[in-house]
């Protein structure tokens, strides 16, 4: 019922009244919406780069003009391939952000597909920007016609911020320039000049592109866990944590200069000396909020060796009640006790904990002999795991790789399942700061809260789904790079963090809402228990629950007020906006309708 109503005339009639007190609210069907002639004229100002998206799943819909069985077979085969997904504007990495209410273009992996492929949240038109002038022209057109723009790079955003229905898309993903500068001088800025080993990347460059390019110059980069993420986009403007976090810091720590287009359409090169407030805000204050980033210039590092310890085991749980799972308690207590010394030594890690299994990867990138150091640091914990009667070891392997590239390829079996896309996913989370580890009493409280969280999730989920209860610890925080001068605007709690704790939920597109909602309530029940004893409440804005109520404090901490003032200075009309970003306009803004109970999916070009 809803599906039909919101694609047809009924939806257009509903949209006829413009929202009061908000700008850039013009919607298809309203008299303010540009005519086809105006779109054509605009297309010429962006060198023909205005495009109507083809939805990824549309070749699978007999009712679609794109219907094609062979192409559909390829789409189904590549549905979980992040690189494949990001080549298409008509997709997002996580499928729920392609949908709007009940409308979607899911190719029928779980349930029979809907009768029509809908654009859902995907913009009906987008500019595939190649040149800075494309961005300026798009901003000017959006301002002239009172249309909201949405910036999209790879579409990895966990809060769905790179897709918004009935907006004009501005795609940055095709801007893929890359340069290596062995010496670099920041523009008109002696303080930031005479730097060595600076990478310069366009807004659309992914980790995969950059790892390969800089490796050819003998350099490694502060990448994350997923090679298809756009490192200059949401990653590099919010934090950007990865295996080099404990030794080199976050991606934002590496930034030396940006080229940007501000909301007035002007191209600016910004750094510590030129527009330092804007530069600061874009070093951690979030994407799509202050300006459009064109080029990201950042510190890269000579390749080192990478030592790893991969551990994989099942658990014989003494009780189905996780609160009474003494095996997990022993493991979490042992790990927590050693954690600060590991982090101080530059060890990063990813630990997947389920009531009945453990998969751990500990990583030490360093010159010299990191393998011996890693073995030494983890010896006590290794003995605990390998001699524990409740743990059934599948494998426990130390290895050393010659470069970041070899490490990433070598640990593919670990990363692949932990970075799955082409499904719906959400990651309620908290940053766990060092004070929670400072005494055995604190560790006991932390461990108990995690076990209580897992148990609360299992109770919510019920027997059929309980085995999915999990906690993922990302030990990638910039613990050894304090940022004493506040050069970045990322949440200050990152500097005191030892674990970025995530309760991940994922399900196939088309899973019944009742099941999806149950899984989300399981995750939220777990986070409620885990966050209860924490003295610092903080979460990584890029990997968090979109429903967090206190998001200003949680995502930005004490920086929120300053960031908002800078946003208002550089973007006084709110040309840029996104969900629970600095200056978020609230659910009543039409661009957010798909998050709410009155969803209005995108109307297809040519809007009739
Ligand atoms: C599988 C997976 C693994 C991940 N692993 C990590 C990890 O290890 N470490 C980590 O830190 N994060 C990780 N992330 C989170 C990642 O940082 C965010 O999803 C991030 O938002 C991706 O940025 P993007 O530009 O690629 O994505 P998009 O969804 O395209 O954009 C994200 C946000 O940035 C804005 N934006 C994009 N380009 C620009 C631009 N040029 N100028 C201004 N704003 C822009 C968009 O409007 C949007 O609001 C992971 C995400 C996924 C899906
Ligand atoms: C914009 O112009 C290009 C080149 O002429 C054309 O291929 C494209 O279809 C046009 N876009 C739209 C939406 O008409
Ligand atoms: C993923 O997709 C990309 C882009 O289409 C393609 O080049 C690559 O081969 C695909 N990977 C796999 C494993 O099929
Ligand atoms: C990319 O590099 C080319 C060649 O130097 C240049 O013409 C173009 O403007 C650059 N693009 C961006 C977005 O900087
Ligand atoms: C150069 O930098 C100084 C501050 O270091 C600033 O006052 C001046 O406006 C800058 N000039 C240009 C052309 O950007
Ligand atoms: C799990 O164990 C705890 C502690 O023994 C107990 O308080 C709780 O009621 C148990 N939960 C269930 C569902 O039995
Ligand atoms: C680790 O190194 C320290 C200092 O060199 C040494 O005292 C200790 O015995 C080593 N521990 C193990 C388990 O090898
Ligand atoms: C861990 O072991 C399981 C069961 O054998 C296997 O399926 C999985 O791939 C292993 N994980 C890693 C990262 O080796
Ligand atoms: C950095 O910010 C903190 C508050 O987050 C403040 O206490 C401190 O004085 C600031 N330091 C500098 C050098 O501005």
Automatic annotation (TrEMBL):
Organism: Hypocrea atroviridis (strain ATCC 20476 / IMI 206040) (Trichoderma atroviride)
UniProt family annotation: Belongs to the oxygen-dependent FAD-linked oxidoreductase family.
Cofactor: FAD
Superkingdom of origin: Eukaryota
Pfam families: BBE, FAD_binding_4
Keyword line: FAD, Flavoprotein, Oxidoreductase, Signal
Domain FAD-binding PCMH-type: 119-303
GO MF term list: FAD binding; oxidoreductase activity
Gene3D superfamilies registered for this protein in UniProt: 3.30.465.10
The name this protein goes by in its record: FAD-binding PCMH-type domain-containing protein
